[in-house]
Amino acid sequence: MERRLTGLRRAWAEIWPPALLVLGILLVTRSGALAVAGGSTAALVWLRRDTRYRELARYVLGFLVFAALRNLADDYAPPAYVAYPIAIDRALFGEVPAVWWQGHRAPWLDALAVILYLSYFLVPPAALALCWRVWPHQLRRYVTATLALFGVSIPVHLFLPTAPPWIAARMGELPGVIPVVPVWFGDTLPDAYQYGSGLSGNMVAAMPSVHLGVTALVLLALWRTPLGWAALGYLGAMTWAICYTGDHYLIDGIAGVLLALVCWRTARQPEATSPGR
Which residues have a Cβ under 8 Å from the Cβ of 35 and sit 6 or more positions away? Predict the structure, then answer.
């Protein structure tokens, strides 16, 4: 255990400088420039004769393609479906969980939900970095499963666009659900939200929840490590957050987790892949 914790501390010392650089690029560039920077970085990384670096390049390029196609789905998909996830949530749980949780809103819960929701953009790349530096035997499987989840989600988002609870509420299909994330940012950091919404993707991609699917892959990658139980707690917290914010139905989250399990299983390597050069 002590050796593992020492490895985690060493990995953190090596990871945070490039992570800070990536965050800086995200904050100072537009989406097109970010795609060029990310694609160029991935291409350079791919040229290194190290399988671990090539996995990082696959992840970066896959994410950029996913983000681009997801935006296209937002522009060219047919009208979004509204009724079916409401009916499924009510059949399974008696009520739409997003409605119930928003009926117990509080300012501190809003802030907690927003922080958890946005942590999605930091925790999965951190898991990638940990697999790269500390648990390289999980790296290829984690990257492959993530890209598979992206690849399956895009056609669903394109051909089965699904409105989230807060849009359904605006259409009169649900009572009292608001988009907590933009409301919270509008009250506190309106410019930051406007910038972030320009970089983010599809507003009618509720089914399946990529948010929760990727979080489930983090759990699967880290389960047999000292961070396994923390990753399980994070999955539970994220399940609450995506519903509380009005961005997903609970059935969206369940679908995302099931998809993650299938992708993880199909990404299993028949033999351990050597991380060496």
Answer: 64, 67, 68
State the Cα–Cα distance between residues 141 and 197, nearest whole angstrom: 31
Backbone angles phi, psi at 81, to 5 degrees: -80, 145
CB contact at 8 A, 95 and 161: no
Roughly how many angstroms between the first and final C-alpha of the chain, as a whole number?
Answer: 27
Confidence of residue 272 (pLDDT cuts 50, 70, 90): very low
What would you measure as the largest C-alpha separation in the chain, in angstroms? 58
As given in the structure block, the two tokens for residue 40 are 């160029």
Cα–chain center distance at 194: 20
Contact 169, 246 (CB under 8 A): yes
- Report the SS3 class of residue 177: coil
What is d(CA 28, CA 200) in angstroms, rounded to the nearest whole number? Answer: 15
pLDDT digits 0-9 by tens, 167-216: 999 999 998 899 898 888 764 544 444 444 444 556 788 899 999 999 99
What does pTM read for this prediction? 0.79
Distance CA 102, CA 104 (A): 5
By the 10 Å C-beta count (0-12 exposed, 13-18 middle, 19+ buried), 192 is classed as exposed
- CA angle at residue 149 from 220 to 93, to 5 degrees? 75
From the CB of residue 263, how many other CB atoms can be counted at a distance below 10 Å? 24
Q: What are phi and psi of 72, to 5 degrees?
A: -65, -40
Sign of CA dihedral 26, 30, 116, 147: negative
The residue among 64, 68, 84 whose CA lies nearest residue 76 is 68
